[in-house]
Every structure is written in structure tokens, then in C-alpha cells.
């Protein structure tokens, strides 16, 4: 962390803490109860913080899925991918940028698929503090619970909660010395070692908890070119939490974590529409040896410019319907040579410094997060709270851009000779820095619950990368300039209990987003005046800026029909921040003109959402059955669509393929989303517990413009189509057997089996090709005696091979004018293992 950045965070934290300390008091902490429903009781079950205050999950009029620490442990959930799998209505998209790894992990909630690789519609929070990316969840060891909040959450959680929010809640340390040590080993070289220690520093006044976790596994797939495994993952994380509570009125919590991921090449494959030959991959010529077999089962009449006018009609073979099985070997060029090491260890034109960079094919990510929260109970009715947070995340991934071993290709269609065969190594890197601060007052007296506060977030991003089929050098890299978003929010919430059963709530946030885009650290020359005045801009100079103001309200009515049954209705607005297409500015005049002609603009407007929701929550059978259900209807307007512009350019060392790729964005879409969701938990008896959930998340595109898809398919009217990268139907079902071990004191056992279902996801909005439906079965069983437990598990019990992600892509080196392949992510195959845990 740089000194200036550290000072900014410390100053913000100190100021926030000083404000609260000057007042002197705190809100009480809430602890989640076990996941399995117990007999009806006064506590009412799991407590969540969906409205920044502790509320029974069956009383809060918000659609929330909460997984307690017990539920997470029983299901073996340790990552955001696991959370998504276990939650109907949630998908993870990790292949929208030409590679299926852990770098771009977008959370897709209720079908709100982000249109670009860096866009976000659902954000992650730790103790209510925003974090940089969903990957940070792997750094939280055994949290108190994970809350998945569905629907717009702008009023309380702010920016990037367009579709919802995911909040990870830490456990508070106890004032008694305790600890845990967990070890796991499994197939595919799968192992994990984690531990935690907590206890008093000064009695009940000052307590702490520290955790550490190290995880590693080999991939499930073998690279036919070299024999190494693909999909290797390794992570090491550490966290520390200190709680200072000098009186019942005041509580201060300080949390910090560091995580690092070091992964090997991704487990992915291309399904090619046409065959590739050693004469340069020209599909219409078969004079060379076939390297890759095409799997086309359909063709389209597309248009060369994607507009349908003034373009050339072309016939494009492609893949339609359900994605076929692999017929070509999973094979790619991922050998880390001396040339690769030299390339990754040079610092010119880089975003990530070499000492933090990946050192070969694969991914390296380093995450730092810190936050402090302070609560002061001014009176019995009034509480002041302040929180401040800081995030720094850097990652770099080095990939084989063509995802295939094409060493047999010796010549391209343009006559360029590839010494030693065709290969396209490519580096992608990103750095994110942000800090935030929030202060609020909460009031509760009689029928009134009120809250008001202010927040500020300063988020900075840097992106860059590049590669070459010829000699790798710093000249092939582009280090983008800073993109900054300063967001100021004023928010409030008011709930009034009109009667003992009927309540009304009105919440809102007034938000100001100030966006700025800056020149690269080396300075920047703008070749054309298509978007901003041409000329040379000094290092770090402001290229363009814009300010957007929005108000996002939410109104809720809820009626407690009986003490065990509640219904609610809500109406809410959501806003997703605007974006800049800064990558366009670094392109040539020809490419900028092509981008503008394809609808690319420098600044796109914020996306808007209106959401209506009806819900029911309750319990029955003396509290042994708990259930929730909700139906929603959302209008997504001003949707930002990603447009990949492929412009023909002269063949040069930096553009050896004769094409330049530019991803631009535009407000060119409108879609309605609607669905129903529900979940239940039933304690049948002392031996059996059953829980399940299901969701139908439907979407209907009203208007959409995507030149690259129209180029391929000839489809220009997308009305009635469904959103990509999201499962329309999803469900989970789990059954747990458990109880005391007969004849063995202080012991218990359990056996749990989970079924996870996700319907296939489309690769694009034309709904041409999708993945097969997923049916996944996991099993865990264990026994506990005193402070020692032993478990066995089987993940993907029946070795399901269903692809876990999909995106349209290209055929290298010559099928680059139109989509001509599908990139799929390969799943982790069956993993068996054993885990032991000791508490002390």
C-alpha cells in the first residue's frame, strides 16, 4: 500500500472513529442461529442486516437468502462459485473476456447479466463495507453468515447494487480463548489447511480473532500439448479482527485481510464452427493437414458491418442448440519459456509491477481489504454508526489467446510466416483502488424506526495488457490511464408501524457520480477528434469527465397476518453507474471511426431499473417448517450493451492479424425481467431435516443492438429473446440425517446430500447456442466427538461434465471477422476427500 493511500485510509478511519467516540455508545451485535429450523421460539430464527439493522429474516420485508456458518460448513461452501451454485437465481460468469478463469468473476443475480467484463450489477460487501470483487469471499474464513439480498439495494448499500447485494458477516470474537484447526486432503491433489484463534486481550473490553487459510488443487483436465493439468488453483489468505467494547454503549471493530491467488492456465476449450488446417487455418481450403475439427450444425446469413445496410451478405457456419461434447483434445500452448519470463518481468507499459505480476501462464491476484466500524448508543433510542473501508486489488493473467495448440500452422491467409507455428500469448492486468466512508444515525422508538446517513466512495481502476504472435515486447502492451468514480450519497430509511400488524417503509438515496478518465502515465496521443480533440495529452491529464445525479427510492408495505405469517409488497428504483469507453481513445483514426459507426460513444448514460415485488414469509408446524416466496417484475432501461468492433487495419508487428479489436459500450438495450423464487427448511423429526429452494428467472428483451451478433446471425430484431449467461430455471434440494451417536457420549453424526440444478445458459442475446442443463450432486458425512470432528465428502458425485460457462469467440488466426467459435469453461470433475477439524 502506498504511503499516500495509507494516509488517506487512516485519516478517514480516524475521523470516522473520532466522531463516534465523541458521542460514546453502540448498537448490539446479532448472532445467527443454526441453519436447521428448531421449535418455535421467541428469537424467530436467523437475524440479517438487510436494512442496516438486525431483523429476523422472516420479518424483514426484503427477499434474502442467508447461509449461516453451520450451513456453509455442512455444504462445503468456501467460495463465491459455491455460493452461486447453492443459491437459485444466481450464476457466475467467468468467460466473458476470452478466458474462463477466476479473474473476471461476475455475479449474475435474477438474470441481470453485466454487459461488459468490468461492469457490475451485484456487489459484494463485508460487514456492510464494499469490496473490490467477488473473489474476496475466499479470504473470509468461516464467516458468521452470508446474506444474498435480491432486488435493488441502492438505498442502504449504494453503488453497483442494481440487481442485489451479497454481504459477508464476520463472527465476533469471544472473550474466551478458543481456536480451530482444519485439514483437508482429496483427489486432484486437493488440500486445505486452515485455522483460527480468538480470545481476550483485555477481558471483555478488547478481544481479537485471527484466521489463516491455505488451499491448493490440481485441475481436472489434462493439456494434450505438454501433459500438465489445466484449472490448477491455489490461494492463501489471512484475516484479523479486533473488537473494542469499553462499555455496553460503544463498540469499535477493525478488520483486515490479505489474500493471494496463484492459478495455472484455465480449464477451457473452444468449440470451432469450422475446421482449421495447417496452411493458415483457411476454412475453404483443405490443402494442409487438419488441426482442429469443426462442429458446425447450422449457418446464418450475416452482414459484414452488423447493421444490415451498406454491408455485404455473408454465410456464417456456427453451432446451434445445445453445445456438443468435445471432439478435439483440450490442447493449448501454455509452456512458460524464457521469452515469456522476460516479458512478464519487464515494467514498461505495465499496470501491475513485475513483483506482483503473474510469472507464467495463469493468474495471480493480490487482495488487500481493511475496514473499521464504530457504533455509539447516544440514548436508548438513538445510535450513531460510522464505517470506513479500503480495498486494493491487483491481478494479472497470462493466457493463450487462441486457446488451442496451433503449432502446426505455418502460414496465415495473408502470407505471414509463423516461426515454430502459430501462438498468441496475451497478458491482461488490472488494478483497483478504492476507499469509502459512511456515517449514519438510527432511531427506534415505539412505532418508528428511522435512519439517515451520508456516504462517499472514491474508486480508481487501471486496466492494460497486450500480446503478439511474433516477438513479445513492451511495445505490444498498452497501459490504460486511470478511470475514477467519486460517488457521494445521502440516504434515509423510515419505517412506521401503522398498527401492531401493518407497517409502511420509505427509503431512498440521492447519489452523485463524478466520473473522470485520465491519460496514461506515459502520456497519450489521440489520433483523431472523433470523441475528444486530437493531440498529445500529458501524463495523468484529464481526458474527459461527467457528473450524474440520481435518486433511488424504495417503498415497502408489510402486513403481519399472524405471528407466524407475513406478506409484503415493494416498489424500488435502481441505478447502475455510467461508463467511459476510454479504450477507444488509444486507437487509430480508422478504428475510432469504425467504433463510432458501430454505435460506440465515449460516455454512456447510467442504467435505470424499476422493480415491483410481492413476498410471503412464515413458519408452521410449531416452527419446524420455515418458508419464503417472492414474485418480482423489473424494467431494465438504458441497458449498456457491449459492442466488439473488429476493424481491418494494416498488418504490423502490433496488429499481425490485420484486425484491431475494440470493445465499446452503448445505451442500446431494454429488457423486462420477471420471476418467482422460494425456499423452505423442514425439520421432519430429530433425525431428518430437508431444505430446498427454486427460482424461475425469466427475461424478455424489448430492444437490443449488438453489431457483432448481427454480423454472425443476421438477427437485428432481438425482441422476445432472453438474456445470456443466466439460468432461467434453478433449484436445490438437500436432505440431512443426523443425531447423537448411540452409546457414545458427547458425540453426533450427520449425512447430507445436495442436488443442484441450473438450466443451460445462452452464449448471446440471439439465443443461438446454450450449455446443457446442469444436475450436480454433492455428499458430505461426518462424526463429531467432543472437540474433534471427521468428515468425508464427494463433490460432483456422478462426475458431471457440463460446461460451467460459455461465450462467443473467434477462430485464430483467420476467423476473426465474425464469431466463429464458442469458448466454454470446463467444470471440476468428481473430487473425493476427507477433512478433520479440532477445536481447542
From TrEMBL:
<keyword id="KW-0798">TonB box</keyword>
<keyword id="KW-0813">Transport</keyword>
<dbReference type="InterPro" id="IPR036942">
    <property type="entry name" value="Beta-barrel_TonB_sf"/>
</dbReference>
<keyword id="KW-0732">Signal</keyword>
<keyword id="KW-0675">Receptor</keyword>
<dbReference type="InterPro" id="IPR039426">
    <property type="entry name" value="TonB-dep_rcpt-like"/>
</dbReference>
<protein>
    <submittedName>
        <fullName>TonB-dependent receptor</fullName>
    </submittedName>
</protein>
<keyword id="KW-0410">Iron transport</keyword>
<keyword id="KW-1134">Transmembrane beta strand</keyword>
<keyword id="KW-0998">Cell outer membrane</keyword>
<keyword id="KW-0406">Ion transport</keyword>
<keyword id="KW-0812">Transmembrane</keyword>
<dbReference type="Pfam" id="PF00593">
    <property type="entry name" value="TonB_dep_Rec_b-barrel"/>
</dbReference>
<keyword id="KW-0472">Membrane</keyword>
<comment type="similarity">
    <text>Belongs to the TonB-dependent receptor family.</text>
</comment>
<feature type="signal peptide">
    <location>
        <begin position="1"/>
        <end position="31"/>
    </location>
</feature>
<feature type="domain" description="TonB-dependent receptor plug">
    <location>
        <begin position="58"/>
        <end position="165"/>
    </location>
</feature>
<dbReference type="InterPro" id="IPR000531">
    <property type="entry name" value="Beta-barrel_TonB"/>
</dbReference>
<keyword id="KW-0408">Iron</keyword>
<feature type="domain" description="TonB-dependent receptor-like beta-barrel">
    <location>
        <begin position="370"/>
        <end position="797"/>
    </location>
</feature>
<dbReference type="Pfam" id="PF07715">
    <property type="entry name" value="Plug"/>
</dbReference>
<dbReference type="InterPro" id="IPR012910">
    <property type="entry name" value="Plug_dom"/>
</dbReference>
Amino acid at each position: 500500500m502506498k504511503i499516500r493511500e495509507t494516509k488517506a485510509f487512516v485519516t478517514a478511519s480516524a475521523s470516522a472513529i473520532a466522531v463516534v467516540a465523541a458521542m460514546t455508545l453502540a448498537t448490539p451485535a446479532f448472532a445467527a442461529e443454526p441453519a436447521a429450523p428448531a421449535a418455535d421460539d421467541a428469537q424467530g430464527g436467523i437475524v440479517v442486516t438487510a436494512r442496516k439493522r438486525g431483523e429476523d429474516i422472516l420479518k424483514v420485508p426484503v427477499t434474502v437468502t442467508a447461509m449461516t456458518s453451520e450451513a456453509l460448513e455442512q455444504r462445503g461452501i468456501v467460495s463465491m462459485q459455491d455460493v452461486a451454485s447453492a443459491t437459485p437465481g444466481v450464476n457466475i460468469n467467468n468467460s466473458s473476456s476470452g478466458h474462463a478463469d477466476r479473474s473476471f468473476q461476475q455475479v449474475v443475480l435474477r438474470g441481470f447479466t453485466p454487459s461488459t467484463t468490468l461492469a457490475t450489477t451485484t456487489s459484494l460487501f463485508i460487514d456492510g463495507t464494499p469490496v473490490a470483487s467477488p473473489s474476496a469471499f475466499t479470504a473470509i474464513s468461516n464467516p458468521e453468515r452470508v446474506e444474498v439480498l435480491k432486488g435493488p439495494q441502492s438505498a442502504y448499500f449504494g453503488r453497483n447494487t442494481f440487481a442485489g447485494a451479497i454481504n459477508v458477516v464476520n463472527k465476533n470474537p469471544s472473550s474466551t480463548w478458543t481456536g480451530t484447526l482444519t485439514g483437508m486432503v482429496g483427489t486432484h491433489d486437493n488440500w486445505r489447511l486452515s485455522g483460527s484463534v480468538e480470545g481476550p486481550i483485555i477481558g471483555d473490553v478488547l478481544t481479537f480473532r485471527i484466521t489463516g487459510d491455505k488451499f491448493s488443487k490440481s485441475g481436472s483436465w489434462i493439456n494434450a500439448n505438454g501433459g500438465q493439468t489445466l484449472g490448477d488453483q491455489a490461494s492463501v489468505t489471512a484475516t484479523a479482527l479486533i473488537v473494542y467494547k469499553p462499555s455496553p454503549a460503544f463498540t469499535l471493530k477493525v478488520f483486515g485481510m490479505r489474500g493471494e491467488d496463484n492459478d495455472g492456465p484455465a480449464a477451457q476449450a473452444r468449440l470451432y464452427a469450422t475446421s482449421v488446417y495447417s496452411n493458415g487455418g483457411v476454412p475453404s481450403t483443405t490443402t494442409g493437414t487438419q488441426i482442429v475439427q469443426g462442429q458446425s450444425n447450422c449457418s446464418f446469413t450475416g452482414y459484414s458491418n452488423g447493421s444490415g445496410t451498406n454491408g455485404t451478405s455473408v454465410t456464417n457456419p456456427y453451432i446451434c442448440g445445445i453445445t456438443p461434447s468435445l471432439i478435439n483434445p483440450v490442447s493449448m500452448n501454455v509452456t512458460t519459456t524464457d521469452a515469456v519470463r522476460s516479458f512478464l518481468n519487464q515494467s514498461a507499459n505495465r499496470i501491475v509491477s513485475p513483483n506482483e505480476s503473474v510469472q507464467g501462464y495463469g493468474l495471480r491476484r493480490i487482495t488487500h481489504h481493511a475496514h473499521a466500524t464504530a457504533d455509539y448508543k447516544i440514548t436508548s433510542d438513538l445510535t450513531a454508526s460510522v464505517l470506513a473501508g479500503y480495498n486494493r486489488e491487483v491481478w494479472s493473467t497470462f493466457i493463450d489467446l487462441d486457446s488451442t495448440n496451433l503449432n502446426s500452422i505455418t502460414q496465415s491467409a495473408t502470407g505471414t510466416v509463423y516461426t515454430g507455428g502459430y501462438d498468441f500469448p496475451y497478458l491482461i492486468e488490472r488494478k483497483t483502488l478504492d476507499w469509502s466512508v459512511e456515517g449514519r444515525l438510527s432511531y427506534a422508538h415505539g412505532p418508528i424506526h428511522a435512519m439517515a446517513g451520508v456516504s462517499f466512495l472514491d474508486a480508481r481502476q487501471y486496466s492494460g495488457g497486450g500480446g503478439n504472435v511474433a516477438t513479445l515486447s513492451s511495445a505490444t502492451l498498452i497501459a490504460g490511464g486511470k478511470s475514477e468514480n467519486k460517488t457521494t450519497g445521502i440516504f434515509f430509511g423510515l419505517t412506521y408501524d401503522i398498527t401492531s400488524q401493518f407497517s409502511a417503509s420509505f427509503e431512498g438515496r440521492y447519489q452523485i457520480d463524478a466520473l473522470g478518465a485520465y491519460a496514461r502515465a506515459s502520456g497519450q496521443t489521440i489520433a483523431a477528434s472523433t470523441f475528444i480533440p486530437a493531440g498529445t495529452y500529458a501524463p495523468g491529464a484529464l481526458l474527459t469527465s461527467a457528473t450524474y445525479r440520481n435518486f433511488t427510492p424504495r417503498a415497502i408495505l408489510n402486513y403481519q397476518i399472524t405471528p407466524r405469517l407475513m406478506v409484503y409488497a415493494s416498489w424500488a428504483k435502481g441505478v447502475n453507474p455510467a461508463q467511459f469507453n476510454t479504450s477507444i481513445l488509444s486507437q487509430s483514426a480508422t478504428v475510432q471511426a469504425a467504433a463510432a459507426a458501430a454505435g460506440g460513444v465515449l460516455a454512456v448514460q447510467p442504467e435505470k431499473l424499476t422493480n415491483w415485488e410481492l413476498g410471503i414469509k412464515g413458519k408452521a408446524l410449531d416452527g419446524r417448517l420455515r418458508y419464503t416466496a417472492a414474485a418480482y417484475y423489473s424494467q431494465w432501461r438504458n441497458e449498456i450493451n457491449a459492442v466488439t468492433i473488429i476493424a481491418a487495419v494494416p498488418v504490423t508487428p502490433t496488429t499481425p492479424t490485420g484486425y484491431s479489436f475494440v470493445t465499446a459500450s452503448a445505451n442500446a438495450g431494454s429488457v423486462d425481467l420477471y420471476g418467482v423464487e422460494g425456499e423452505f427448511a423442514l425439520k421432519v423429526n430429530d433425525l431428518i431435516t430437508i431444505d430446498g429452494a427454486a427460482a424461475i428467472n425469466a427475461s424478455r428483451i424489448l430492444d437490443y443492438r449488438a453489431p457483432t451478433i448481427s454480423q454472425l446471425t443476421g438477427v437485428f430484431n432481438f425482441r422476445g429473446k432472453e438474456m445470456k449467461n443466466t439460468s432461467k430455471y434453478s433449484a436445490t434440494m438437500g436432505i440431512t440425517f443426523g443425531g447423537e451417536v448411540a452409546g457414545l457420549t458427547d458425540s453426533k453424526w450427520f449425512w447430507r446430500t445436495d442436488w443442484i440444478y441450473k438450466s443451460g445458459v445462452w452464449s448471446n442475446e440471439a439465443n443461438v447456442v446454450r450449455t446443457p442443463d446442469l444436475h450436480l450432486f454433492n455428499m458430505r458425512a461426518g462424526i463429531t466427538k467432543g472437540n474433534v470432528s471427521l468428515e468425508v465428502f464427494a463433490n460432483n458425485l456422478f462426475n458431471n461434465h457440463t460446461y460451467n460457462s460459455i461465450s462467443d469467440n473467434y477462430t485464430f488466426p483467420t476467423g476473426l471477422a465474425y464469431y466463429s467459435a464458442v469458448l466454454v469453461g470446463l467444470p471440476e470433475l468428481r473430487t473425493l476427500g476427507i477433512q478433520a477439524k479440532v477445536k481447542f
